[in-house]
């Protein structure tokens, strides 16, 4: 199946040696996808603002005086919210130039910096951080264990990692999880099979990676993290009252959030 999250190989000749340089093109750089995403996020009933952001901010807790890295910062919603918690500085990285352009355009606080860096290349960053955050990006990463290892290498002593991602029961099937009748619950397909999924979203084929909960937890443990908290947020009774569609979240939460601490 054709997918827009593709890779280009540049071949350059250097001192007689053929070197292949890979450059990732983000689907968030596709104009139509980007515009649809911005439109989705500007809707007053978007789940990011109603459920995801308040819960991850609470999980992140106190970061005053800390150096913070935000992986997959997009146009900076979490980054800017973090900057208001009085950190020393927040570095937001993303592999989409278009998203970062939007972030720069929006109100950029003095303690925030944005850089075009792929999450897979964070080992090119030369400073260390007290807190590493990521909101809804890790399901785009192919090798999560490798990423956790690179994050661990960027951490100061007592470092913390707090991230959200699409919930594994949502990433399991290529169709997402279809809820046709709220009283019937849900059907989940292929939960136990980790790997690539091509999901139709915002009019495009988007490549994501499904991992079962045990894969994620064990990858953290294997790379020197201790899990301190796991959150599967659901809407409040008041939110459900205002928007009955949110009842779906009681059958399958959209988000998984994990807070972990450097063990070694
Ligand atoms: C759903 S958006 C979330 C944006 C932001 N964290 C927020 O909460 O508003 C996912 C973001 O992850 C970024 N992303 C996806 N794969 C990435 C990668 N390999 N390296 C860096 N950023 C990536 C996308 O460009 C996009 O900005």
Number of helices, where a helix is a run of at least 4 consecutive DSSP H or I residues: 9
Give the C-level CATH assignment: Alpha Beta
Question: What would you give as the CATH superfamily?
Answer: Vaccinia Virus protein VP39
Helical residues, percent: 25-40%
Bound chemical compounds: S-adenosylmethionine
Element-level helix/strand string: EEHHEHEHEEHEHEEHEHHE
List the helices and strands and how they pair.
Blueprint (H helix, E strand, L loop, with lengths): L6 E8 L2 E8 L6 H12 L4 H14 L6 E5 L5 H7 L5 E6 L2 H9 L6 E5 L12 E7 L8 H10 L1 E12 L1 H4 L23 E7 L2 E7 L2 H10 L2 E7 L5 H6 L5 H4 L3 E8 L2
Parallel strand pairs: 3-4, 3-6, 4-5, 6-7
Antiparallel strand pairs: 1-2, 7-11, 8-9, 10-11
The structure holds S-adenosylmethionine.
Structure commentary:
With 264 residues, the chain is an alpha/beta fold. The chain has a single domain (46-262), classed as Vaccinia Virus protein VP39 (Rossmann fold, 3-Layer(aba) Sandwich), CATH 3.40.50.150. Helix content is 29%, strand content 30%. The chain is built from nine helices and eleven strands. Strands 5-4-3-6-7-11-10 form a seven-stranded mixed beta sheet, sandwiched between helices. Strands 1-2 form a two-stranded antiparallel sheet. A two-stranded antiparallel sheet has the order 8-9. Helix 5 runs parallel beside helix 7 (213-222). The longest helix is centred in the first third of the chain and has 14 residues, at 47-60. It is globular, with a radius of gyration of 19 Å. The termini are far apart.
